[in-house]
Amino acid sequence: MKYVKRILVAVLCALCAVGLSAQDVQFPFPEVPTLMTDTQARLRFVLENFWSRYDFTDASTYNEQVGEQGFSEFINLMQYADAATQKTAVAGLMKRIGKDVRLMKRFDSLTGHYLGNPNSPLRNDVTYEQMLRGLLASPVLDEAQRSRMDFRLKMVTRNQPGTQAADFEYLDRMGQRHRLYDLQSELTLVVFSDPECEHCHELMPKIMDSKVISGDRRLKVVSIYPDDNVKAWMQMRPTLPRNWSEGRSPAGKIMHDQTYFLPALPSMYLLDKDKRVIVKDGSLEQVEKRLEIKDI
Predict the structure, then answer these.
(1) In whole angstroms, what is the distance from residue 168 CA to residue 181 CA?
(2) Residue 187, domain extent
């Protein structure tokens, strides 16, 4: 309930921003009817009419900067909407882009920058999937663009929230074989990391020190090295908490087969008791917020 309330507050704050004066913002947000007070209704209205006042014909640098600001606000709001609203919102944007090759390239670039970049604070694979599907429906894509987008869509749709996580085999330090689905627990947290990854050296101690993770008795944590540098993994001095499991992917199969799309490490997947994905490639903050919900 606390998590739901935080989401509603965030949505309300974002929707309040839509009502700011022209002096406060550059992007021409749609005007929400004053009698529309329901939060979800307001969110749906804003997303479905988001681009109605933006001039797509103006190719000036200034207008493109305004459009980029609008795009970042658009995808930020999208994360709070249901799938049907997201689909309708993206379809509305694609209709306005139409058959304009310049606009298609522009919004493809923005989509990759804000949603495909692993370091983007706005990265969200569910929204990314919706945008890629919308872009792929364009009749102006050439064969190379379509092939590239098809690959990106294939990667991003793997292990999406609500779907069954892909099972995989891993070897522990004694060489014994295990499988993800052998772990029996109400919740499972898979932490993919690499002993040669500087970002992992920075973030793994924070993950291991998390009181939310360590204090959740429903949770089993397994740290997995997904690549094939066995020597580096074996030479790494184990520093994991005693109640964590650890292993490596045989011959780096997880990375080579792209069983999980791992554009940056460490990467965390929170799974339910049936190994359905709750959080995909989440940050520590995202995982902690979901663990605070006791009825997931």
Answers:
(1) 8
(2) 169-291
Q: Say if 163 falls within a structural domain.
A: no
Select from 107, 135, 156 the last residue of a domain: 156
**C-alpha–C-alpha distance, residues 104 and 149, integer Å:** 12
Asked if residue 187 and residue 88 are part of one domain, the reply reads: no
Distance, CA of 76 to CA of 115 (rounded, Å): 10
pLDDT tens for each residue of the chain, 296 residues long: 444 444 444 555 555 545 444 445 589 999 999 999 899 999 999 999 999 999 999 999 999 999 999 999 999 999 999 999 999 999 999 999 989 999 999 999 999 999 999 889 898 999 999 999 999 999 999 999 999 999 999 999 999 999 999 999 999 999 999 999 999 999 999 999 999 999 999 999 999 999 999 999 999 999 999 999 999 898 877 788 989 999 999 999 999 999 999 989 999 999 999 999 999 998 899 999 999 986 66
Taking the model in full, what pTM does it have? Answer: 0.81
Residue 164 lies in a domain: no
